[in-house]
Amino acid sequence: MWDVREPASHTDQGGSPCFPVFRKLNGDCVGKLKRGKMLKEALEGQLTAVCNSIAASVQFQVEPVGRWFEAFLKRRDRNVSASFQELEEEEELSEESEDDELQLEEYPMLKTLDPKDWKNQDHYAVLGLAHLRYKATQRQIKAAHKAMVLKHHPDKRKAAGEQIVEGDNDYFTCITKAIEILSDPVKRRAFDSVDPTFDNAVPSKSEGKENFFEVFGPVFERNARWAIKKHVPKLGTMDSSFEEVDNFYSFWYNFDSWREFSYLDEEEKEKAECRDERRWIEKQNRASRAQRKKEEMNRIRTLVDTAYSCDPRIRKFKEDEKARKESEKKAKAEAKRKEQEEKERARQAEMEAARQAKEKEEEEAKQAAQQAKKEKEIQKKAIKKERQKLRTSCKNWNYFADNEADSVKMMEEVEKLCDRLELVSLQSLNEVLASGSKEQGKAAVEKHVQEVNAQLQREREAELAARQAARGMEQGGSGAGGVSKGWNEEDLQLLIKAVNLFPAGTNARWEVIANYMNLHSTSGIKRNAKDVINKAKNLQKLDPLQKDEINKKAFEKFKKEHVAVPPTVDNAVPSERFDSSSSETSSPSWTTEEQKLLEQALKTFPVNTPERWEKIAAAIPGRSKKDCMKRYKELVEMVKAKKAAQEQVAAKSKK
Amino acid sequence: MAAIGVHFGYTCACVAVFKDGRADVVANDAGDRVTPAVVAYRETEQIVGIAAKQGRIRNAANTVVKVKQVLGRSFEDPEAQTHKSESKCPVVNKGGKPRYEIDAGEATKFVSPEEVAKLIFHKMKETAQSALGSDVNDAVITVPFEFGEMQKNALRHAAEEAGFNILRLIHEPSAALLAYGIGQDSSTGKSHVLVYKLGGTSLTVTVMEVNSGLYRVLATHTDHSTGGESFTQALAQHLASEFKKSFKHDVTGNPRAMMKLMNSADVAKHTLSTLGSSNCFVDSLYEGMDFDCSVSRARFELLCAPLFNKSIQPIKSLLERVSLSTNDINKVVLCGGSARIPKLQQMIREIFPDVELLNSIPTDEVIPVGAAIEAGILVGRDSFLLDEDSITVDCCAKDILVKEADESGADVYTVLVPSGTPLPARRQHTLQAPGSLTSLCLELYQSSSSSCALQEKVADIVLKNLDPIEEIRDIVTVATMKRDGSLHVTCVEQQTNKSEAITIAAAS
User: Fold this and answer.
1) Long-range residue pairs from A132-138, CB within 8 A, at least 24 positions apart, any chain
2) Searching chain A, which residue's CA lies closest to the CA of residue B396?
3) Which of A138, A70, A399, A57 is nearest to B483 (CA)?
4) What does pTM read for this prediction?
5) Which pLDDT does position B195 carry in this prediction?
6) Is the same domain home to B140 and B238?
7) What is the CATH classification number for the domain harbouring B294?
8) Among residues A599, A487, A480, which one has the least CA distance to residue A551?
9) DSSP letters along A448-513, please?
């Protein structure tokens, strides 16, 4: 099994790293490389030259196995190449060689030292290493000790004829003590920690303000020796980047020191005679060490704090940061303002566009209206002209009559025609009159007259039916009336409605009505069937005056409500109350008054009136043209139905 | 500091301990150095090892074998599906992961492959501890080269569950090389090694390059259909036919009888690796009839001849794939239990007549020993943690050669820096020249193929005005190659200390 330790050298022949490279080769060329192969002689004029570039390296995956892999990994992690490692080794070699000619500084006071006071002596000075101190390697210390022993050993001196103080009192004991301390890493560290030459001073703020780098640079460099971690970051210069400065301060704020103060222990543990004493001593020492350590940490802390507060770079970074923030803030505000402005502008543009669009629309509507008016006028004129034509032509034909009476009647008929016929039929009639003979003209006129008369007749019948319907409704409406105690108008209305809603023959009619009243009444009075019957009978008995009054009141109330609602909406969504109260006259919102007005209007504007329905609508307040037409159609239908029923009855009676 | 290496195979697991500078396989409580990777679930306990394997005859439905096949795989994985179809223990799908359905008394337990692996690892840990007499956690575990990230993680997880502190997962072929210490005694030199692993159910052939102590897998071939079990199967079939011949009963349809025969054949096969003949004896194999039969090694070899041929086949195809001839292979490492078979070893020897066949370590112990050695290297190091399992290294792309002449005057090329050398590298050679010459020329070439047929001249180094001397000159040539591939060559003539240096830049 090979040994697991880090391979020392990376050259061909392995071997000890202590020997320089050439030495190991000498033995080699004989054994290993005797291959019978020889280099060739250089040709004439051949020179050392590169004639081609070498292929670039390629990447391979290797198995993470074996000690050479570990060695490789270590080199990679330390970012050190093999040759660098060799260099390091060579450096070590050169150091060794330096050791031979190690310069030892003679310590002039050596001979006067008191061995009993060894604790206060400077061990480095004693060994002549005062110039190296904590930097001295173990090798150097050993070499120095050897040199000192050779020179100062009592035996040597005796041989040289010097006087020796017997026992431990000779100064040579100091040298022994020094090597004892310095050769033991723990003891040496303890001594290093309290190195008498170390300057513990921390510069004050005022000192640091002036020339920061000159004052603090050496101080940090000095204190860096206590760091457990290697590679202490340098203080740097004014041009150091933020990262560097940050790294520096975070290192020093988390400074891990190996400095410890066991060397200054007042009592020596080894001197104690019993366990208890030893414990006591230990406790004492621990306390004092902790105290000193704390002081030391405080010292470092103060140093770093002072440096931090004085550091011109920190100040600069802070200012930069502040400026940056401010500018950011400004930029933000600017951006916001701009955004708002942009919004405002957009809004205005939109409004302008809307306004223009509206204007345009209005203009167009206006023009359209004018156009329509013009057309209407033209049509009116045409109709007038046609009428005139008809009249004149009829006049020319002497109204197709022989005697005066006939002609008067015909004149009336023609007038009627003029009124009722529309533009197209008038035109056609005129054409017939103009082109045909008298007989033909008469036939045509008579035909039209008949048609018109039939139409008129129909209208009249419709009117009649409407009147009858209106009367029926009036009668239905006047089925109730009168005001009595506990019965306000609304309740009365409700009662009437209920009575109509539940006609005679309904199961338990009066209880149902009472219930209905209670449910729908706003007065909050509870009524029973008896009350309701009494009231209903009362109402039936009431004189017509009171009936009228009640009807009027009801109408007024309706009108009030009706006015409150815009007319178009009214028609589209008829309220249910009217629906139930006037179920006979299908269209709910038509009051008797309006009905009357409609009938009147229908009469005043005969069928052939131009824009007849518009005019009719205008005659009835709160009704549109469409409403009127609808109503009219309903009326017509009703009349027709009535007629049919009458005919049926007549047929039956005939049978 | 003790550390252990664990090999967790398809059929067997083995643990080796690194202590006091040497690695050794530890025998388990049954006295076997290799533990079958079989876990049997009983109502109250789980049994791992040989007892579970023998108990499988009666408890097949609750005995898990070859758990490594499904470890870290999803249920849909074809490998897992194959395992499912072969396993006597039902495998069910639980959220895309395979689970063993174990009948634990009244309830049915669903056991993950990781839990099974954990039990096996735990057994290995116990074994190592009993040998060391102290608690040991640090372990290196081997994985097959073809294992994916998921499987590695599953294995790692199972081992950690068992209480191991995993120093590293290493590939089985690398562990095999390490067991023989190939490339470990010097950090220079380049060689090719073929690792032939024939385990219980799988055959893996790997060609590795060892350069400057670093291992690199050039090519690998895995065949999951060939392995020791197929040999046992063949032998068991033969035994069954023998039984039929003498008792007129066909036992091939009886799974329990077949399992008994398989166990018997397994023992016989092991014996035949060392002895010329073996006796198979099965009590009450079928309907109370005992079976006794003697098998000779020759018979066994005859039975398995086609299988042996099939096992040998991949070697040649693999060498062809990496365009190496059998002469380019410097060493052959045998590992896996079935590589013990004398006939197989003989066949491999025939393929590589001049190559050292490494089989001094018992073949089924090679991998755990290698793992233990790696554990010994790693244990106690503070920075052994690796983020990735394999590391890419800058390597020299081509051989760097120098032209020389042999006695007859013909051109011969000597390799200064072989291709694949991890960079940065420094190689030192002492070249020789007749002392009568006053000027010398080192012509440097680079060549990508090992046959030196396609060289490309890169530089000349000329040493001039040398004083003629009696003896032969030594010229120490140091070639240093940087990570990017650029080369610096220094020649020093030893007798006169005349020197010449040149730097050749790398093509970008």
Assistant:
1) A133/A192, A133/A195, A133/A197, A134/A192, A134/A195, A134/A225, A136/A182, A137/A95, A138/A183
2) A57
3) A57
4) 0.52
5) 93
6) no
7) 3.90.640.10
8) A480
9) HHHHHHHHHHHHHHHHHHHHHHHHHHHHHHTTS---BTTB-HHHHHHHHHHHHHS-TTSTTHHHHH
Given the structure tokens 């390697």, which residue do they identify?
A137
Q: Cα–Cα–Cα angle for B367, B370, B373, nearest 5°?
A: 155
C-alpha to C-alpha distance for A247 and A655, rounded to whole angstroms = 125
Is the domain of B158 the same as that of B16?
Answer: yes
Residue A521, sorted as left (phi over 0), alpha (psi -120 to 50) or beta, turns out to be: beta
* Domain match, B237 and B164 both: no
**Per-residue pLDDT reduced to its tens digit, B311-321:** 999 999 999 98
Please check whether residues B30 and B131 belong to one and the same domain: yes
Contact between B426 and A46 using a beta-carbon 8 Å cutoff = no
**Of A403-407, A462-466, A627-631, which has the strongest mean pLDDT?**
A462-466
pLDDT at A2: 44
pLDDT in tens, B339-373: 999 999 999 999 998 888 888 889 889 999 999 99
Q: Is the separation of the CB atoms in A432 and A390 below 8 Å? A: no
Q: In the 8-state DSSP scheme, what is residue B2?
A: -
Q: Domain for residue B361, yes or no?
A: no
Nearest to residue A248, comparing CAs of A308, A315, A187, A162? Answer: A308
In chain A, which residue's Cα lies nearest the Cα of B479? A11
Contact residues, chain B, for A38 at CB < 8 Å: 404-406, 432-434, 472
Q: Retrieve residue B73's tokens.
A: 């795989």
Taking CA–CA distances from A75, the nearest residue in chain B reads: B424
- Asked if B170's CB is within 8 angstroms of A65's CB, the reply is yes
Which of B253, B287, B305 marks a domain boundary? B305
Domain count, chain B: 3
Hey, how many other C-beta atoms are within 10 angstroms of the C-beta on A373?
10
Chain A environment of B458 (Cβ under 8 Å): 50-54
Domain boundary among B168, B187, B218: B168
- Asked if B464's CB is within 8 angstroms of A42's CB, the reply is yes
Cβ pair B440:A29 closer than 8 A: no
Contacts of A53 in chain B (CB under 8 A): 458, 504-507
Complex confidence, ipTM: 0.83
B19 and B155 housed in the same domain: yes
Percentage of chain B beyond pLDDT 90 is 24
The reply to whether residue B183 touches residue A11, judged by beta carbons under 8 angstroms, is no
Q: Is the peptide bond before B353 cis (omega within 30 degrees of 0)?
A: no
For B458, counting Cβ atoms within 10 Å of its Cβ (0-12 exposed, 13-18 middle, 19+ buried), the class is buried
- The residue range of the domain holding B458 is 399-504
Q: Which residues of A touch B430 (CB under 8 A)?
A: 25, 28-29, 32-33
CATH number of B474's domain: 2.60.34.10
Tokens representing A61 are 């995956």
Cβ distance A62 to B403 less than 8 Å, yes or no, reads: no
Asked whether residue B495 is domain-assigned, the answer is yes
Same-domain status, B233 and B139: no
**Do A57 and B423 lie within an 8 Å CB cutoff?**
yes
A108-131 pLDDT, tens digit per residue, is 777 777 777 777 888 888 888 887
**pLDDT number for residue B451:** 54
- DSSP-derived pairing of the beta strands B331-335 and B356-358: parallel
CA-CA-CA-CA torsion sign (B372, B374, B380, B383): negative
The DSSP letter of residue A13 is: T
- B394: closest chain A residue by CA: A59
> What is the spatial distance between Cα B350 and Cα B309, in angstroms, rounded to a whole number?
12
Q: What is the CATH number of the domain that holds B11?
A: 3.30.420.40
pLDDT single digits (tens) B388-404:
656 788 888 888 888 88
Same-domain status, B157 and B12: yes
B-chain residues within 8 Å CB-CB of A3? Answer: 21
Distance from CA of A248 to the nearest CA of B (A): 26
